[in-house]
Write a structure and sequence with these properties.
Structural class: alpha/beta
CATH topology of the largest domain: Spore Coat Polysaccharide Biosynthesis Protein SpsA, Chain A
Helix content: 40-55%
Organism: Arachis duranensis
Number of domains: 2
Low-confidence stretches: 406-418, 740-744
GO molecular function, one term: cellulose synthase (UDP-forming) activity
Number of helices: 27
Radius of gyration: 28 Å
CATH class of the largest domain: Alpha Beta
Protein name: Cellulose synthase-like protein E1
Membrane topology: Multi-pass membrane protein
Keywords: Cell wall biogenesis/degradation, Glycosyltransferase, Golgi apparatus, Membrane, Transferase, Transmembrane, Transmembrane helix
Strand content: 5-15%
Length: 744
């Protein structure tokens, strides 16, 4: 290898094009926002007897918040960067023995919500990475303590002996068997070819495995005949319940074991099943606790210097992504500064127009590169490649880190392979004890941090505050694919958890607003605060969704007339903001209808998820409720799935969030109809912006009206929600007409 090849970096960083033009546009938008603020202050009613004085003041506060929040969002677009790794250079520079060991963590918690077949497809996909198998170790943490999940993994360990050679031989993508077989068929190859015969053979092996696992899942137990054939099942003899059981660990595959080879005689990756000890009276700290148990156990079994964690529904979609991530982590010039590489979450079940906005297109395509420009993205809990020592609390030291990663200690010798597997399992059980972390730094300064619904974000922030940087890498072929929510309640609950966790971070001792001051760049502080303050958007958005419509019904003007010069900043900011958002969405491979759906979900999240997240946070701070972790369903019922594919919005229950959305939708409809009935089309000339706002709110809520009155399927709103929402919305409109709200 020549000198030029040795000095060539393993990745490059590119700045976004057109930044100067965007900054000029942003400056003009800010001027427009300033003029709106000036208008609100200048024309605020001075006399208490004037109609709408307090509403006007509320509008000023809302527009003040929207403007300030827009400035925070601007920071995410101020200096975006994009990364490009060079895995070919990595392969030339490092042979297999010099590559670091990699420990991969897959976490599951409930076999009913997260079916075992889905879990093992994820496990098999990461076992099949294009990476030296003797350097790979895969750990499945099962917080459900399910013997059926263990049985599924046991079967997967046997299937892997055939699947990994098949993937390597035919360069298979993706390497999740279920996803691959869905994308190809035997007709892909000519019927006489060896390829077709091997495909049929491997598919038959998979279907046989799937059949016996699905049968065990339906029965709810593993047959006694099967249990007697493997010693691992004996660990369930003392099993009481998923919340009360001893530590369980089984090393299913290990390089020391002569049977841990595939059909070609190649050593398979280490494969370990574990379920930490659970007791009803001991806090287990949800996924963060599981991750910390994995960090400890893996340190004595394989001790890989790189850790990848994935959710059980996020299979590896790109066999090269592991080597691509390594390009950042072991680059000779910059790699020693980087603690983790975050990839975006992709979803395989998205509809064409993404009815629930689950793809998070703008966040992943525009905002995370913006965070990367200020020092690195946040850690989002899945699809993230870490250096082990940074997860364990190590502070950044430039010289020490440079020596560590450029020295001889870059490879993993797996020195524990001489120890008996049984002894390893016994040692590991002590690390899985529910009391092991008592009086230690685990969950405080080591591992993932506790006490927050989004433990991943707070952990990533703590790592960055210790001086480390992170990298955002968004490959053309998504590194991981998972499952997006298929019903509106699921989507709203998911965003409630995210936003609530973000707000908890803001109020905690790890807050980016003040505790991170001087430890990370000011730009990164602002971007963290942008996400942490999601919940506070509920108040001005609710206000804007209610009072302009109410004042339209009363004939009270809240915006300038079209003939007024003050109309110009409102028109410019509205058109400019929506045009920019639409273009960003389209450049992120979205559709126009998808943008409309995304806008609808933007409204629904702010008026329901964020509101209930704010209320829950207040109650928790007062000691009325404790932290809870909600697992999202990963498999939808058949009828629900069919409606989702047709992009028919799913309601189906009477949750408070859905009731609130239905009430707001009906209230806006009644106000618009009432105003037009009283003033006719003349309202459009007198109160144009209020009419426009009400029309947009009504149009965006069309799926809700269909679910309330037109649909007959099980995905419609329950009758109780229809009556409750109509009663509240009508009451509000009637009360406004009898001058109950005259003083506002």
């Amino acid at each position: 290898m020549g000198k030029n090849e040795e000095s060539h970096p393993l990745f490059e960083t590119r700045r976004a094009k057109g930044i100067f033009i965007h900054r000029i546009f942003s400056f003009s938008m800010f001027l427009g926002i300033l003029f709106i603020w000036v208008y609100r202050v200048s024309y605020m009613p001075r006399k208490s007897s004037e109609d709408g004085k307090w509403v006007w003041f509320g509008m000023f506060l809302c527009e003040l918040w929207f403007g300030l929040y827009w400035l925070m969002r601007l920071s995410l677009r101020w200096n975006p960067v994009f990364r490009q790794p060079f895995p070919h250079t990595l392969s030339q520079r490092y042979d297999d023995d010099k590559l670091p060991g990699v420990d991969i963590y897959v976490c599951t918690a409930d076999p009913e919500i997260e079916p075992p077949m889905m879990v093992i497809n994820t496990v098999l996909s990461v076992m099949a990475y294009d990476y030296p198998t003797h350097k790979l170790s895969v750990y499945l943490s099962d917080d459900g303590g399910s013997d059926i999940t263990f049985y599924a993994l046991l079967e997967a360990s046997n299937f892997a002996k055939h699947w990994l050679p098949f993937c390597k031989k035919f360069n298979v993508e993706p390497r999740s068997p279920a996803a691959y077989f869905k994308s190809v068929s035997s007709t892909t190859y000519s019927n006489d070819s060896i390829n077709a015969k091997e495909l049929v053979t491997i598919k038959k092996l998979y279907e046989d495995m799937e059949s016996i696992i699905e049968n065990a899942s339906k029965v709810g137990e593993v047959a006694e005949e099967i249990r007697s054939k493997h010693k691992g099942f004996s660990q369930w003899n003392s099993f009481s319940s998923r919340r009360d059981h001893d530590a369980i660990i089984q090393i299913l595959l290990h390089g020391k074991d002569s049977s841990a080879k595939d059909i070609d005689g190649i050593v398979l990756p280490t494969l370990v099943y574990l379920s930490r000890e659970k007791r009803p009276h001991v806090a287990h700290n949800f996924k963060a606790g599981a991750m910390n148990s994995l960090i400890r156990v893996s340190s004595i079994i394989s001790n890989g210097k790189i850790i990848l964690n994935v959710d059980c529904d996020m299979y590896a979609n790109n066999a090269q992504s592991l080597k691509e991530a390594l390009c950042f982590l072991i680059d000779e010039e910059k790699g020693h500064e980087i603690a983790f590489v975050q990839t975006p979450q992709g979803f395989e079940n998205l509809t064409k127009n993404d009815i629930y906005g689950g793809a998070l297109r703008v966040i992943y395509e525009w905002e995370f590169p913006g965070m990367d420009g200020f020092g690195g993205p946040m850690y989002i809990g899945s699809g993230c490649f870490h250096k082990r020592d940074t997860l364990c609390g190590k502070k950044f030291n430039d010289q020490e880190s440079l020596k560590h990663w450029n020295g001889e200690d870059i490879n993993n010798d797996q020195s524990m392979t001489k120890t008996s597997l049984h002894l390893l399992e016994q040692k590991s059980k002590a690390l899985l004890s529910c009391t092991y972390e008592n009086n230690t730094l685990w969950g405080k300064e080591m591992g993932l941090l506790y006490g927050c619904a989004v433990e991943d974000v707070i952990t990533g922030l703590a790592i960055q505050c210790r001086g480390w940087k992170s990298v955002y890498y968004n490959p053309k072929r998504k590194a991981f694919l998972g499952v997006s929510p298929t019903t509106l309640p699921e989507a709203l609950v998911q965003h409630k958890r995210w936003s609530e966790g973000g707000f908890q971070i803001l109020l905690s001792k790890y807050s980016a607003a003040w505790c991170a001051y001087g430890l990370i760049s000011p730009g990164l502080q602002i971007t963290y605060c942008f996400y942490n303050l999601w919940v506070l958007n509920c108040l001005p958005t609710l206000y804007y969704s209610i009072f302009p419509s109410l004042c339209l019904l009363k004939g009270i003007s809240l915006f300038p007339q079209m003939s007024s010069p003050w109309f110009i900043p409102y028109a410019y900011v509205t058109l400019g903001e929506n045009t920019q958002c639409l273009l960003e969405f389209l450049w992120s491979e979205g559709t126009i209808k998808g943008y409309w759906n995304d806008l609808r979900m933007w409204l629904y999240k702010r008026t329901s998820s964020y509101l209930f997240a704010l209320i829950d946070t207040i109650f928790k701070s007062l000691g009325f409720s404790s932290l809870a972790f909600v697992i999202s369903a990963k498999v939808a019922e058949e009828n629900v799935s069919q409606r989702y594919k047709k992009e028919i919005m799913e309601f189906g229950n009477s949750s408070p969030m859905l009731t609130l959305l239905a009430t707001l939708a009906l209230f806006n409809l009644f106000c618009l109809v009432g105003a037009l009935f009283k003033g006719g089309l003349g309202m459009l000339m007198v109160l144009p912006l209020q009419v426009l706002l009400s029309v947009v709110l009504v149009l965006i809520n069309l799926p809700l009206y269909e679910g309330l009155f037109l649909r007959k399927d099980k995905g419609r709103f329950p009758t109780s929600v229809v009556f409750k929402s109509m009663a509240v919305a009508l009451s509000a409109c009637v009360l406004s007409n009898v001058n109950v709200f005259t003083t506002i």
